[in-house]
Amino acid sequence: MLKTSEGAHDTRPSADAGNRPDGRTATDELLDRVRALLPNIRARAAEAEELCRLPEATVRDLTEAGVFAMHAPAEFGGAELQIDALFELALLLGQACTATAWTATFLAFHNAALGRFPIETQREVYADRNYALSAGSFHPLPGTKGEHVDGGLRVSGRWDFCSGILHSGWCLLDVPVEPVEGRPANRYVCLLPIGDLEILDVWHTTGMRATGSNDVSAEGVFVPEHHIIPTHVFHGTESPGALLRPQHSLLRMPFYRAAGIFHPAFAIGSAQRALDVFRDDIVGRRQRPVNGGPLAEAPLTHSRYARAAHAVQIATLLARSQADEAREHYAAHTGDPELERRAYFRLSSVGAIAQAAEAVELVTRVSGGSMFRSGSELDRIKRDMAVLLNHNSGDWDFHTETAGKVLLGLPTDPEAGVYRAL
Questions:
Q1: 188: alpha, beta or left, given left = phi > 0 and alpha = psi -120 to 50?
Q2: Which of 161, 257, 264, 372 has the most Cβ atoms closer than 10 angstroms to its Cβ?
């Protein structure tokens, strides 16, 4: 069983998320603090891979910068920033270490997930400080189940892909519950303290190692009612926390849709860093094979770099457009956009990831064998990008198939999970 590093760091920056007298915002100031951390985070990337978790120094730096409090409720001292801050955070951190970006962004984002629970739960979670560290998995493995008991659920099972679990004090878990008399079968998102779970050391991968995305298991754990939300309510627009804070559009944005907005930023930040490394470290020193001359003088190099830069440009435009449009919609409406519009959101998201991956492929194909040496930054970026492409957010075939059926006007069930996730 693994132990977590969920520490007692505490920072309480201003919860002001609006404009300051100088025209700068709390988001601007947060990103400036994060930008200053990038060299050290990049320098610790190899250590993070070796540890299969974030180094303690990185967790401390991110905490002191206010990253983990950025989406916590203002009434508990959090900054309660909007989705654009999360996108920019992932984009910045992706230029230092993709796995660190993933872990830190989800730990920050999950404060907005905790904000979906009833106020009683939030008071418990934020009793000691203005942020909480929580992992989560919505992938119950076969045999996982919950049963209704007095005052809550009794939960047993196993869940995978719990990114950031080694830094967390809480875990959000999706639990299927079988029907009983008077209650139909349902699924619930349950919030469990980390001490009620066993962390299983299974995250031994070639990419995204520092996310520490291990499995967790539970055996007969009691979950009280105020730690339980029906899954469709949690992922919807009217969770208890969203009704409590109608002005906070991130809480009204369905959970999967919010995640789809910032997912491309990991890939785009990583791709931009790959282009920087190729330009600064590879092109100037590498010779083409068989006395072909400097790589910098080859027309193919010029073409590939331009195509890669263009792919990053396209990815950025696609990702920002869907992020801006979604943010504006949920700021003005309490319900979802129509299904066709959501299909375009998802196409922009997965398309941006595909473009970023293509940019990395263009430059790494001509970077030479030395890029595969242990400790090579380009090698790490390429391995991390391969994992991103195999996450469901980067599954080009699945999302184009789903969106294509909608855009063709073919019969669909808007309430089916595959379409609700658009």
A1: beta
A2: 264
Secondary structure of residue 216 in the 3-state scheme: strand
SS3 236: coil
Residue 21 CA, chain-centre distance (Å), reads 32
The strand pair at 170-177 and 134-137 is best described as: parallel
Question: For residue 324, what are the CA distances in angstroms to 183, 192, 271, 328, 344?
Answer: 40, 33, 21, 6, 13
Map tokens 């009983």 to a residue. 180
Instruction: Give the gyration radius of the chain's Cα atoms.
Output: 22
The token pair that represents 102 in the structure block: 């993933």
> Residue 21 and residue 33: Cα distance in Å, rounded?
19
pLDDT category of residue 408 using cuts at 50, 70 and 90:
very high
Burial (CB count within 10 angstroms: exposed 0-12, middle 13-18, buried 19+), residue 280? exposed
Q: Tell me the C-alpha distance between 416 and 419, whole Å.
A: 6
First to last CA, the chain: 36
Q: How many residues does the chain have?
A: 422
Of the candidates 263, 370, 361, the one whose C-alpha atom is nearest the C-alpha of residue 305 is 361
Cα 178 to the chain's mean position, in Å? 30
Positive/negative CA dihedral, 246, 249, 250, 256? positive
Percent of the chain with pLDDT over 90: 77
Contact, 133 vs 170, CB < 8 A? Answer: yes
Query: What's the CA gap between 60 and 41, in Å, rounded?
Result: 11
* C-alpha–C-alpha distance, residues 82 and 174, integer Å: 25
Helix (H), strand (E) at residue 190: strand 186-193
Give the Cα separation of 66 and 71 in Å (integer): 10
| Phi, psi angle pair for 154, to nearest 5° | -105, 120
Q: Tokens at residue 416, please?
A: 């089916």
- What's the CA gap between 157 and 58, in Å, rounded? 32
Q: What is the pLDDT of residues 59-106, one digit of tens each?
A: 999 999 999 999 999 999 999 999 999 999 999 999 999 999 999 999
- Report residue 382 as tokens: 């390429």
Q: Which two tokens stand for residue 398?
A: 């699945």
